Amino acid sequence: MVDPADVDPSLKYSINAWGIQPLPTPRKAIALLAKPVSKVLEHYRMIAGCAIDGSDAEYATVDSPASARQLIVIVLRFPDEPTASVVASKIDSTDSELNSANVAVSVDGYPNAHAHWRPGLPTMAASIAHGPYVVSLLLRNQTADQQALTGLARTAFDKQLPMLDHFSATPEDRFQSLPLDQDGMLRRLVPYAPNRWPYPAVVAFSNTTDATLSQEGSVNPFGLVFEGRAARLWYRVTYDTGVDAIAENNFTQLYRHFDTVKARKHFNTMLQKLISNTAQQRLPDIPGADDTACFSNPSLQDYAQYSAPYTCITLYGRYIGILLGRDKVNTQHRIAAQYGLLMNTDSE
Questions:
Q1: pLDDT tens, 110-157?
Q2: Mapping DSSP to helix (H, G, I), strand (E, B) and coil, where does residue 278 land?
Q3: Which of the residues 79, 93, 123, 160 has the least number of beta carbons within 10 Å of its own beta carbon?
Q4: pTM
Q5: Phi-psi region of 131 (alpha: psi -120 to 50; beta: other; left: phi over 0)
Q6: d(CA 90, CA 86)
Q7: 195 in a domain, yes or no?
């Protein structure tokens, strides 16, 4: 997957809280694509997919999505090249037909691309088939500038398509044999609740009918491990942080670093960011859990049913654990358990 920051250096932030999003089924893909597209993806037997997004503004600081430039790159895999070619056309036509004001536009250098734009709006969608893959782009500019949007689409295709040529996909009949936790990342991750160990799953939702390029569409993974470049793209951290793997289970995360020095430096950066955040109040330290800190965000207390007012982080060796929670005591107990779990598995 191309990093949107390699398409345009300003697109270095995530639209949501994360950058890369797995799309294992058609029903997950329509969190970003138009809902009617689901039938197309199912009929033509979509095998797997992934999305990555970029913005020129941090999502938490954007008052209105229209104030930011954004790009989502979606790659979907199909059984063969002819199928992908049909799907690329149908994705575009299905989304375009949702509003009669949409008009077809072309992307210079890519005569086989399908794209549409609604005059007066700062957004555009474009799709193209490349081998057994369909690459769909969702683009937003700060103004309704068609040339700026198609120019960004061309650059995105320029960067993404060659990467697919060098990608070796796992044969479909080998999916079931892929290891779930070959490095023991999930085993080191404290469960979200007692006896509820993480198993790979993706929860997706969207509040819109057409393709969405905003915080309206969300893809939340459970029990997944991102390694190497994928880990750094997932949470938008740089190579300098030393992160080489991240285990994700919704409100629980575990970071693994190249070495203890990198882990310590990254932990100190995280801790200082929480301390300097005026919305966060540090809670008393937990006895016996060194290098552990918990914080409360009082502004979220009235919304605890829908958000996580409590944040705890812990460091042990090469690992950093991060927990979010709705209940103070439960969150503190879980971070203490996370510290103990890391300590007891350190020699493995």
A1: 999 999 999 999 999 999 999 999 999 999 999 999 999 999 999 999
A2: coil
A3: 79
A4: 0.86
A5: left
A6: 6
A7: no
Instruction: Specify the 3-state DSSP secondary structure of 199.
Output: coil
Residues 243, 134: Cα–Cα separation, whole Å: 30
C-alpha distances out from residue 197 to 184, 209, 235, 291, 320, Å: 13, 34, 22, 25, 19
Domain count for the chain: 2
Give Cα separations from 183 to 178, 195, 224, 247, 323 (angstroms): 13, 21, 12, 10, 21
**Long-range contacts of 168-175, Cβ-Cβ distance < 8 Å, separation of 24 or more:** 169/77, 169/132, 172/47
- Domain containing residue 25: 4-167
Q: Is residue 207 classed exposed, middle or buried when 0-12, 13-18 and 19+ CB atoms within 10 A define those classes?
A: exposed
Strand partners of residue 129: 134
Written as six digits, the tokens of 304 are 């605890």
Determine how many CB atoms are found less than 10 A away from the CB of residue 237: 17
- Flag whether pLDDT at 214 surpasses 50: no
Residue 73, Cβ density class (10 Å: 0-12 exposed, 13-18 middle, ≥19 buried): buried
Instruction: Look at residue 192 and tell me if it is in a domain.
Output: no
* Residues pairing with 312 in the sheet: 294, 323
Question: In this predicted structure, what is the pLDDT of residue 219?
Answer: 65
